Amino acid sequence: MLLVDGFNLLWAGTFGFPAPIHSRDKTRELTGLFAFFALLRASVRDDLDVAQPEVLVVFDGEHGTAERVATDQEYKANREATPEALKPLQFLAPVKDGLDAYGIRWVEIENAEADDVIATLATRAAASRPVLVMSRDMDFYQLLDDRVRVLNRSRKSSRRIITADEVLARFGVTPAQWPAFRALTGDKSDNIPGVRGIGPKVAATLLRDGMPLRDLPGSGRLTGAKGAAITTAWADVLRWEAMITVRRDLDVPVVLRGESSPQLPKPADVVEKLGLW
């Protein structure tokens, strides 16, 4: 099962593709559309251990952040809303049209973030088969186990597949501790500041041996200036952990069929089929 973080892929394609793509008459930029299908097709070809997986693309809902913003109004408030920063959105409708045209399923829930939808579907699918989540978003590290892995195509080909063992070896925490780790250290992409002075090494030391965040105050580990900083920010830390923790229990109106999706088309064929060349 391949679950694709649709907006993450669209942004990566729009801003990271090697060269801009335009219509033949140069009046329309097509980079985001072309790159979306090029990267998705290349990932299925190069990074999966099955020839033709079941593919499901998940997009953020228009009001998906509302629940977390209600908890903390600073959530993702650092993201630019300039025309250039939002440039990928112009390709959203044709991307969905292209997916529909070739029978590749996608889902978008108006009041849910893609992270939570993917977490719900990954949990559901992993009961019967391996799952690969295609995204550069490290929030998905909390899902990692012996059945769920993350695919980050921005990494070298030999390091694109991220496992629970890698997270433990690289960061010193288990996937289950990832929300606590990020609550302490911060997550710039979501505008979660973390505790001042607490870096990855300190956080990993505090959380060693699988220590749950809620048990830290009674553990005797919150000593010195750094311990005092965490104690002072404790209510914020708990709130950040809750915000970072993905939901796995959404009502997602999608049936996971366990069947191969249609073969992914060449990106040029998608553009041609949509009449955009």
Describe this structure in words.
It comes from Kitasatospora xanthocidica. Residues 1-262 form the 5'-3' exonuclease domain. InterPro entries: 5-3_exonucl_a-hlix_arch_N, 5-3_exonuclease, 5-3_exonuclease_C_sf, DNA_polI_H3TH, FEN, HhH2, PIN-like_dom_sf. With 277 residues, the chain is of the alpha/beta class. It has 11 helices and 6 strands. It has helices spanning 6-16, 31-46, 66-71, 92-101, 114-125, 164-171, 178-185, 200-206, 224-232, 234-244, 267-273, and strands at residues 2-5, 55-59, 105-108, 131-134, 148-151, 161-162. Strands 3-2-1-4-5-6 form a 6-stranded mixed β-sheet, sandwiched between helices. The longest helix is centred in the first third of the chain and has 16 residues, at 31-46. The radius of gyration is 20 Å and the shape is globular. The model has no long low-confidence stretch (mean pLDDT 95).
